Structures are given as structure tokens and as C-alpha cells.
Amino acid sequence: MPDYYIHATSTVDDNVTIGRDTKIWYFCHVQDGAAIGESCSLGQNVNVSNNVKVGNGCKIQNNVLLCEGVELEDYVFCGPSCVFTNDLTPRAKYPKGHDAYMKTLVRIGATIGANATVVCGHTIGKWAMVAAGAVVTRDVQDYALVAGVPATRVGWVCECGEILKEGLKCHRCGRKYKEYEHGLFEEQDYTVS
């Protein structure tokens, strides 16, 4: 008896790894070579393409496309109908094949909002937040809040999800941050309430 759940309407190809306590809901397709971690949830109509890697504790909402070349680290949240790409210049008549697909990395704890598009070849930093409907066309810094078309940084967010104000201290959990070239890093002298 498997220690994960796959709804009867979903299709899971051969050579797929699924972690303990993961739930794959209605009408999903998990393709050959995909690896999904433990305690993940895939909502209705999610497509996990060939060789995609999904870390532990990820939440992938309804109608999400994870195309080949995408890697999600642990605790990534993908909002409803967000989309990833893997080819900057696709042509139906001139397919490039999987060896030419560009990679996209979504670091630990990042959130991709509903209907956002992540153009391939970029990294979404750890604990970053991409607003609903945004179009990501370049790397996103750690803890950055990005919005718009194309997405630009409009603020910073805490690991717990709160928008950070002046001083970069979270009023909810007490975490404190400092800015550096790749975004923010967390100071270690806080107490979580």
C-alpha cells in the first residue's frame, strides 16, 4: 500500500518518485522522470512535466503547469493557474527538444501568485513572493516582493509572509533582516513570538 494518495482521475507515468504523505488530486498528470517530495499537495489539473523536481512540503494549486526544466525547492507555494515556460523562442515547426530547455529554479519557501508567469532561465530567491498576475522576466532576490508586468521589486517580505516595513523587522514574528546584493538575509538575534 503506497504512503501517498493519487486520485483515480490522475495519471502518473512510469519512473516517477512520489514522497510520503503527498496528495495528488483530480485530473493531474505527472510525467516520466518527475520527482515529487514528501507532504506535497497537487490541486486539480496540475501538470508536472518530464524530469521536474518538486521539493518537500510544496503546495501546487489548481491548473498549474510545471514544465520540463523547472525545479522547486522545499515549501514552495504555486498559486492557481501560474505558469512556467522553458523556451524563450518556441516554434511549432522547429522544436528544440528537452536538451535545449532553459532551467528555472524556485528557491525554498518562495510564493508564486495566482496567474503569474515565470519566464524560463531565472531564479526566484528564497522566501520571495511574486504577486498575482506578475510576469517574471529576470531573477528575483531573496525575500523580495515583486509585482507587475514585467515584475519589479515593490517591497520585502518576511519568511512568515508579512510585508516588511522600515527597519526590516517583522511586526508579526519578530524576525529582523539586513539588505545585501542578493536581497535580504535574516539576522539571528530575534525571538519568534
Could you characterize the architecture of this molecule?
It is a single chain. This protein is mainly β and 193 residues long. Helix content is 0%, strand content 31%. It has no helices and 24 strands. The strands form 5 sheets. A 9-stranded mixed β-sheet has the order 1-4-7-10-13-16-19-21-22, with no helix packed on it. It has a 6-stranded parallel β-sheet with strand order 3-6-9-12-15-18, with no helix packed on it. A hairpin with a 2-residue loop joins strand 23 and strand 24. The model has no long low-confidence stretch (mean pLDDT 95).
What composes the largest sheet?
A: 9 strands, mixed
Shape: globular
- Which secondary-structure class do the elements indicate? mainly beta
Q: Tell me the helix content.
A: under 10%
Strand content: 25-35%
Poorly predicted segments? none
In whole angstroms, how far apart are the ends? Answer: 41 Å
The main sheet orders its strands as 1-4-7-10-13-16-19-21-22
Count of β-strands: 24
Q: Please state the average pLDDT score.
A: 95
What's the SSE pattern?
EEEEEEEEEEEEEEEEEEEEEEEE
SS summary, helix count: 0
- Gyration radius over CA: 17 Å
